Amino acid sequence: MNEKKIHKNKWQTTIFLLIIIFITYLSTAITDFNFIDSIATIPAAIGWMFTNLMVTQESMAKMPAIMEKLGETIFMSIAATTLAAVVSLFLALLGSKTTKVNNIFSMLARFIASFSRNIPVVAWSLILLISFGQNSVTGFLALFVATLGFLTRAFIESIDEANQSSVEALTATGATYFHIVSKAVIPQSLPQMLSWILFMIETNIRSATLVGILTGTGIGYMFDLYYKSMNYNVVALITFTIVIAVIVIELISNKIRKVIL
Fold this sequence. Notes:
Blueprint: H1 2-31, H2 35-52, H3 57-60, H4 63-95, H5 103-117, H6 121-132, H7 136-160, H8 164-172, H9 177-215, H10 218-228, H11 232-260
């Protein structure tokens, strides 16, 4: 019996790999992608990067302006994530099987989460750009809506995974809905929720750079400005600054996670 199962699994794995190979080949044929030519261009691309993307003393003069725009991007990301977390908590309580008020509100909360999550932040930026124009409000709203869907889904799963014994105990004593949520559900789910919030802050800082290019705000706008003017020395400085900022924030976030989890 075990040999048949192993043999079946091997055949399924082989078929699956063949399908992936076929899809990959078909994709390269449709897009005219040549893997060998791509590999051959790597040395030239690396050479261009080392030749043009160099931080010079002249580009360092732009550092104060870069730091100002970077701070704007970071604070916008934190603000969008924080506000989205508050709204997501409300929607998660309505959507979770443990704390739902009724099926209608639960389905509505899950629909909002699914709808906002499945549209990429770049698409949200373009959609909102038509209505609000190129400004910081557009970037903020794009990050907010995309974060709302992700955090709502994550919070629902965190609440559903919480220990049900304390919820059942409070329910048996006749505790109110708000008492059950504040005393049993939130305390258990809070560490995991905070971890997701920190993760989204990291993600949004990365996304905010691309959003800024589209909405004309923050560090993304400055990157786009100097890139289009072919001032690659400043582009290199902006890139290094973003990378260092993301690494520092990730290290801080990891330390906070170790404390709360």
